[in-house]
């Protein structure tokens, strides 16, 4: 009987570690996708003429495993000097009510 109880406690601990590993894996997948979204948006901004105006906020939805990931993308442009602009793309997403962000910046000149 004691051996069964000890084995049961060990198996419950193992089950909890599987849940933690799965949660971290999903969180990393969302972060990797946010990085991809940021790079795609930045590349789209870079191929346009420097005088192009962009919508400040957009959203992207993706399907991760059996759920969906929602990313809010904020694009900003700042004049640096003369014909040089700073492009910034900030991607935000929520995982278990905690908001995370990823930011990409680059400089474009005429």
Description:
With 110 residues, this protein is of the alpha+beta class. The chain has one domain. The chain contains 1 helix and 4 strands. It has one helix spanning 2-46; strands spanning 57-64, 67-81, 84-95, 98-109. A 4-stranded antiparallel beta sheet has the order 1-2-3-4, covered by helices on one side. It is rod-shaped, with a radius of gyration of 21 Å. The termini are far apart.
List the helices and strands and how they pair.
Blueprint: H1 2-46, E1 57-64, E2 67-81, E3 84-95, E4 98-109
Antiparallel strand pairs: 1-2, 2-3, 3-4
Whole-number mean pLDDT: 88
The tally of strands reads: 4
Q: Report the radius of gyration as a whole number of Å.
A: 21 Å
The string of secondary-structure elements, in order, is: HEEEE
The amount of beta strand, in percent, is 35-45%
- Give the terminus-to-terminus CA distance: 78 Å
List low-pLDDT spans.
none
| Helix fraction by DSSP (H/I, runs of at least 4) | 40-55%
Counting helices, strands and paired strands, the structural category is alpha+beta
Largest sheet: 4 strands, antiparallel
Shape: rod-shaped
Give the spatial strand order of the biggest sheet: 1-2-3-4
How many structural units, i.e. domains? 1
Quaternary = single chain
């Amino acid at each position: 009987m004691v051996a069964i109880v000890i084995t049961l406690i060990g198996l419950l601990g193992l089950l909890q570690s599987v849940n933690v590993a799965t949660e971290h894996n999903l969180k990393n997948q969302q972060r990797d996708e946010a990085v991809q979204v940021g790079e795609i948006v930045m590349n789209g901004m870079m191929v346009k003429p420097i005088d192009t105006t962009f919508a400040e906020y957009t959203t992207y939805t993706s399907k991760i495993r059996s759920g969906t990931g929602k990313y809010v993308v904020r694009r900003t442009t700042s004049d640096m000097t003369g014909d040089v602009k700073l492009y910034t793309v900030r991607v935000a997403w929520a995982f278990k009510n905690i908001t995370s962000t990823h930011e990409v910046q680059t400089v474009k000149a005429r």
